[in-house]
Design brief:
- The complex is a heterodimer.
- Chain A has 18 helices and 30 strands.
- Chain A is α+β, with helices and mostly antiparallel strands.
- Chain A folds into 3 domains: 176 residues, Aldehyde Oxidoreductase, domain 4 (2-Layer Sandwich); 168 residues, Aldehyde oxidase/xanthine dehydrogenase, molybdopterin binding domain (Aldehyde Oxidoreductase, domain 4, 2-Layer Sandwich), CATH 3.30.365; 294 residues, 2-Layer Sandwich (Aldehyde Oxidoreductase, domain 4).
- In chain A, strand 6 and strand 7 form a beta hairpin.
- Chain B contains 5 helices and 5 strands, in the order E-E-H-E-E-E-H-H-H-H.
- In chain B, strand 3 and strand 4 form a beta hairpin.
- Classes of the chains: A alpha+beta, B alpha+beta.
Amino acid sequence: MMLGFSFMASCKPSKEEVLTMPEEWFEMNSYLKIGENGVVTIYTPNPEFGQNVKTSMPMLVAEELDLDWSKVIVDQAPYNAELYGMQFTGGSRGIMSRWESLRMAGATAKQMLKETAAKTWEVPASEITTDLGVLYHKASDRSITYGEIASSASGMPVPENVKLKEVKDFKIIGKSHKNVDGKNIVTGKPMYAMDHKREGMLIAMIEHPPAFGMTFKSVDAEAIKAMPGIIDVFPIKTYHEDYEKGGFDVNAFPELVAIVGKSTWEVMNAKKRLKVEWEPRGEYTETINGWRGKTTNSIPGAMENTTGHLSKMEELASKPGKVVRKDGNPEQAFKNATKVIERSYSAPFLAHNCMEPMNAFAHVQGDKVYIAGPLQAPGMIEPAIIARMGIPSENIEIEMTRMGGGFGRRAYSHYMLEAALISQQVNAPVKLMYTREDDMTNGIYRPAYTATYRAALDQDNNLTAIHIKAGGVPESPLFADRFPAGAIDNYLAEEFSIDSNITIGAFRAPRSNFMAGAEQSFLDEVATEMDKDPIALRLEMLERAQNDPVGEKNDYDAARYASVLELVRDKSNWSNSSSNANRGVSAYFCHNTYAAHVLDLSIEDGKPIVDKVCCAIDCGIVVNPDAAINMAEGGIIDGVGNALYGEMTFEDGVPQKKNFDKYRMIRMREAPKQIDVHFVQNEINPTGLGEPPFPPIFGALANAMYKATGVRQYSQPFLGDKQVLG
Amino acid sequence: MASYKININGKEHELEVDGTTPMLWVLRDHVQLTGTKYGCGIAQCGACTIHLDGVAVRSCSMPISAVGDKSITTIEGLSEDGTHPVQQAWLAHDVPQCGYCQAGQIMSASALLKDNPSPSDAAIDSAMSGNICRCGTYTRIKAAIKTAANS
């Protein structure tokens, strides 16, 4: 049933060094096994990229099973859709989608143990209680540990209609627990795919075209094959030409050159000397079977420039877009307006820049494939492997290694397939590694976006209409049914998109990561024009949306949205802040969670310094509080960094930044000095935190910068390569 | 190809590699010490940080031919089983998210504290700003360094 060999077998999780390992394990279900000495292994189903579900998902199982958390070991479950369902990490959906099923896994196992004890003691199972891995029959003063009874309980039929605990009875959920991989991380244990070592393993790298719009023509392999340590050089086609791609099979460069050698440095040297001829790819059509159905797109052939993107976006922003939603009579409201405020916002392409570059370890032996790598969606790459290599699912083993960051990029795991193809070609285990330059110039970027907001104010300074026109290269960021839709009588939302051959993909809170900043900066400006407190304005609008909503499809709960604003107002001492504080506020709802920030800024030698961020979040029940705070801090710091510095530009299709010397990342000295995170306390089923704290920070920063400098920020990055403002 | 005798984590290693090979790849490919990470290859991200006679250096940009008699310490050799105060502080503050940068962060931090046992915020910023954390654990890293300094 369970599991193939894991290369990590030689690296034991830290708890094992403190706990005594059992002599025998008894499987209760695919999520857990109990040792005869009471130590329990829980399998965490989803791949891990720093959001720490590797700790919080097992906590759900342990809670219902009434375990002693100090006796729990966590192992990564293998990829097995039959046993674990959709093992997808992304969309901030992990805990939310497994909240019931993981608890049920613990609860059914507990019931099996209870029924076994009941049989042994000849008492009703309902009289048996459990606590910290022990079963009790209080009436007869008997007890037995899970370990002692596990062998009898294992293999029992899985009980039905098992009840889950009430929130008030939680002992593990809602308490902070340390990262189960903490010790391994701080001692440098091998955990990432690039840490693999196997007998006969070769190192591989790829070379892709230098520009979007180019493709492989020919390569002079012989010169390179003669270099020290080099085994082979050959082109590979990642997908067959007639393969119908899925939504995650994004790939700018259909044909790559692979270099295979004995050591990384030797292959890197060979790569530097590689002479490849590239040629224009020309226009082509692509059919994608995405989650919105099958679409056929025409991809333009010209090499693109950032200046071209900007002028095209400007051109389309001045023309009517595709109307997505219209409430009331916005045209009339604007015609009758005493004042119209119109502002345009823009943000560039962004590279994900995961710290661990794209890579995978693969070993193809005949018709058997083993691939270990950092990926968010094993279920999405498997069909591509099956189609490309003609190998059936049962012969494919995918190990989900710990990812050195994901941010959406690792949902597009073409590198897994590339590693397998290279391994197959050289008939050896292969570790494929992208250099930072390969990674940063390979695309699957966050798109370039623009949005124009217009607000109509009547003679009494009431807000009577809002008009949004949003667009991007190559997709629109618009969410027409989000706030402020529903809060305003006259509302018009339009969008446009511009075709491009630059590949894009999900980037931490797709589309929201731009719209939130634009929207929340605009609302701040509208509040200033209306001479209203920015929080008060939002709360007024939300009150309207709650009591008398406009339209039926409003994609937010106005009461919950208002409560995070009230919480951040209170916790940041908003109403009593001293006049020295340059503060900006922003709030947003995305990926099922509400987040609001108040950001305090000062200027030192022309540099913006984020002194403090006060953050309020409603994500329902908080499973692991300190880990949740870590996620909020991370999203905030990531947002400040991308708002100030994040930018990818193009000239003749060539990405202009290849490494961190040119692509500026936020560093320790620029990080907020203090971050306070507060959670709304409720018993709503948990929702995610990977993405929601990220979008609103852009607006909070822009609004604080206005307070500090008198200048509004409309175009990201706010600082870019400049060292100082102005 | 040349022969080099290098002291790594208190052990002498005899290595037959090209003299230009950066220590990062010597460690990862030839000595099987994979705790030191590759992030950029141009000394811009700090993921490859090791100690050379106790001083933090970026191993991606340090060829084996430049090491000579000096001792190299990697994350694996920083302490016996994670007991270095910096490692202990990292666990106390539950610092890591994805974890990929953390070996480099810990090596930079431990070198800082060896040199400056009671660093100011500005000194921490200065010493640590060569280490990128993409996940944004900077506030925790700073707090952990202060805890380690006080322990």
